[in-house]
Automatic annotation (TrEMBL):
Region (Disordered): 389-425
Name of the molecule in the record: MFS transporter
Biased composition (Low complexity): 397-415
Ranges annotated as spanning the membrane: 7-26, 38-60, 72-89, 95-118, 130-152, 158-178, 212-233, 245-262, 269-291, 297-320, 332-355, 361-383
Subcellular location: Cell membrane
Gene3D superfamilies linked to this entry: MFS general substrate transporter like domains (1.20.1250.20)
Biased composition, class Basic and acidic residues, residue ranges: 416-425
PANTHER family named among the record's database cross-references: MULTIDRUG RESISTANCE PROTEIN MDTH, RESISTANCE PROTEIN MDTM, PUTATIVE-RELATED-RELATED
Keywords from the UniProt entry: Cell membrane, Membrane, Transmembrane, Transmembrane helix, Transport
Keyword Nucleotide-binding found: no
Keyword Transmembrane recorded: yes
Length: 425
């Protein structure tokens, strides 16, 4: 089997198993804590996973430089598996929060490692690799949500034992199929990379990156508002359905629509407009959740909230892959993960607080109205800057190439890379 093909099988198989395991446990635990404690404490536990992921951002490059990408993925996944296994043998929000931190730290090391493998592929192979990665994740999401519905009423010890088995599978498949060499992360010029570095999220040195990374953080804030808020919503307003049932709808929708819909929009619009369409879909979804609050409205919201995942996420990933020279990819992964983790961390905590607040002030669905307002604002920002942002591709790539000329990088390489990737999307 070709080395890249083997690595792709390992990466996609790993993310599939990881998503199955994740979507088994967190909707059930969030709904359980929302009922026994409060939305706030449910949000705190989920927030701690992203505190761990955020901290891992500052360690990722140093770990990858010492262990290699494959070793980092193995260590991160093993830590996740152990922490998840212990979840079933503990009780109380403080213990859950501590273990959630280690789950997040492990994910913060393994997940950017998987993406680092993909962006290390030849440019012509990257779009298909990212598409396969995204598809595998959605298959895992759908399968995990279905299994989570089946296991919703079992003891948490049994639930987390099943999740532990999936993450052990994740650990084994990535270790077996990702080659030991060929994807190693090493400091340029043999320079030693510190284990902990606060500069890890400053790896993108391209004009216009700050706006896109802040928008990315806002998107993940909204995404986690949905992920944490919808199980709480289901337990309160649609208790006859399993807490994970909305993820059946979103998972299946993304499986069917991901490739054709993104390809359709990417051919006709620049990245700013594509991201705006995704955020507009999320705006409609949040309004549906807030105004309806019944089963049919949940279905409507789930069918439109997926536009964010379908349009925003791959557009942002490909934008980064086109723009960043290969020797900066490890820092780029750290930068992406920092902003994603920051948005997820604040979004998960805010979801629980806003849910409790909307109930205490007597405004049913008020938490979703706040999310809709933010999503609409972000969509307008994308649209207002789309002309300059879309034209920046050629200007910024040339700038990046010129800056890299001293390192032996041709100024035209970035432009050629962009054109090649665009042809293959």
């Amino acid at each position: 089997m070709k080395e890249n093909t083997r690595a792709l099988v390992g990466v996609t198989g790993g993310i599939l198993l990881a998503n199955v395991g994740s979507y088994i446990w967190f909707p059930v635990l969030v709904a359980t804590l929302g009922g026994t404690d409060s939305g706030f404490w449910a949000g705190v536990v989920m927030c701690m996973t992203y505190v761990g992921r955020l901290l891992a951002t500052f360690f990722y490059e140093g770990i990858a430089a010492r262990t290699g990408v494959r070793g980092g993925v193995f260590l991160g996944t093993a830590l996740e598996a152990v922490a998840l296994g212990l979840m079933g043998f503990t009780d109380g929000v403080l213990a859950y929060s501590l273990l959630a931190f280690f789950i997040g730290f492990g994910s913060g090391v393994s997940f950017p490692g998987l993406k680092n493998v993909l962006v290390s592929f030849p440019e012509a192979e990257r779009p298909k690799a990212f598409s396969a990665f995204q598809m595998a994740g959605q298959v895992g999401l759908f399968g995990g949500a279905l299994l989570g519905g089946v296991l919703a009423d079992v003891e948490l010890r049994t639930l987390f034992s099943v999740v532990f088995a999936f993450f052990i599978g994740f650990c084994l498949i990535t270790s077996a199929l990702i080659p030991r060499g060929g994807f190693e992360s090493a400091a340029a010029g043999g320079e030693r990379v510190p284990l902990f570095s606060l500069s890890a999220f400053k790896g993108i040195e391209v004009r216009g990156a700050t706006r896109y990374f802040l928008l990315s953080a806002a998107f993940w804030f909204l995404s986690l508002g949905f992920v944490v808020g919808i199980p709480l919503h289901m337990a309160e307003y649609v208790p006859q359905w399993a807490p994970s049932s909305p993820f059946w709808i979103t998972g299946l929708s993304i499986l069917v629509l991901q490739y054709p819909l993104f390809k359709l929009f990417d051919k006709r619009f620049g990245p700013g407009a594509v991201m705006a369409f995704g955020l507009a879909g999320m705006t409609v979804a949040f309004l549906a959740f807030g105004a309806g609050r019944t089963g049919p409205w949940v279905v409507v919201g789930c069918l439109t909230v997926v536009l964010g995942e379908i349009l925003f996420v791959p557009s942002f990933d490909l934008w980064i892959a086109r723009r960043v020279p290969e020797h900066r990819l490890a820092k780029a992964m750290g930068a992406m993960h920092f902003f994603r983790s920051a948005g997820n961390m604040v979004g998960s905590l805010a979801a629980g607080i806003l849910f409790d607040l909307s109930r205490s002030v007597g405004i049913a669905g008020g938490n979703w109205y706040v999310a809709a307002l933010l999503a609409a604002g972000c969509a307008l920002i994308c649209l207002s800057g789309r002309d300059s942002a879309d034209s920046e591709d050629s200007v910024d790539t040339a700038d990046t190439g010129a800056a890299d000329a001293s390192d032996g990088t041709e100024a035209t390489a970035g432009t050629a890379k962009e054109e090649k990737v665009t042809e293959n999307v």
